[in-house]
Amino acid sequence: MSSLGEAITTARRALGTTQEELAAAAGVTQGALSRYEKGMREPDGDVLSRLAAALGVTESFLKGAGSVRGAMAVDAHMRKRATAKATTWRQLEARLNMYRMHVRHLMEEVSMRAQQRIPIFDPVDTDPADAARMVRMQWRMPIGPIQALTPWMEAAGCIVLAEDFGTSRVDGLSQWVDDYPVVLINQTAPVDRLRLTLGHELGHLCLHSSEVTLTMEEDATRFAAEFLMPEEVIRPQLRNLTLGRLHDLKREWGTSMQALIERARDLNVISSDKRTNLYKALSNKGWRTHEPLSDELSPEVPALAQSIGEAMAAKGLTREEIASIAGFSDPSRNTIFVAQERRLRAI
Prior knowledge:
Blueprint: H1 3-15, H2 19-26, H3 30-38, H4 45-55, H5 59-64, E1 77-80, H6 86-107, H7 128-138, H8 150-155, E2 159-163, E3 170-177, E4 180-186, H9 191-207, H10 216-228, H11 231-234, H12 243-253, H13 257-266, H14 272-284, H15 304-314, H16 319-325
Parallel strand pairs: 2-4
Antiparallel strand pairs: 1-3, 3-4
């Protein structure tokens, strides 16, 4: 498949559109579109223009979309449950690929200077917990609970995007785009689960930027646990766990009671029997599926992408120009770098 064919296919999948639907919208036959996507033929200028418009992107976006890492459809790191449908997470993966390319498209014209950086570790030589500790040290984070994780990641140049996935079976995805990592999170998930997802995806970005290992998911989970609940600080607090104690710790650390139970077991602070009894107590109250207190935690609100859009608007760029620079066909398609409307006021 050619890079252009990959770009067309990925953009179509991201929209959840069939070949038949895209062909009709672009005024081409389905057979012709199939050949374009497979790289057997290249669309002429007029057809490419109609395809781009139907996909909500610019022609230059489609032409340049396949040049990163040799392919448009790069596999994403993904935190999902085993029961997640392949069609669902494939569409989400396509959407992340599109966001990744829109970020890259914009960064070709706009420079961004991050206060920190997301460090890269060799997953073979570096223990995930050690990596988490080193990131906290490099970012000069305070000892103890992290009140909000998103601002720390964005300060390191990570573009965090939140949207409704339409399913609770997938929590988040991440990829690198050149020097800028992109994370997509499911905004309908409870805050405690979102925070663990952000930590999990940060673990992937630090440990798996180029190396793929058989223990990737386990590594990312261990990284997130140490990053959000550092052993040195939390270990003494995990002794003599009760449901009441778990309530207090959830408020303090912003992680789920189940994550706290797992942390206690992984650190050998509680026995397997104690873990089982705590889960039974949660089940008896119906808290395995709907934990209390989640709505009391401070929300994780991404802000960097909007700030970039507003900075561009402050320099005099119109909504149309911002959308075009990011590779969107018109402002209504630009859901990433959105600047708030400025209103005239009487003086």
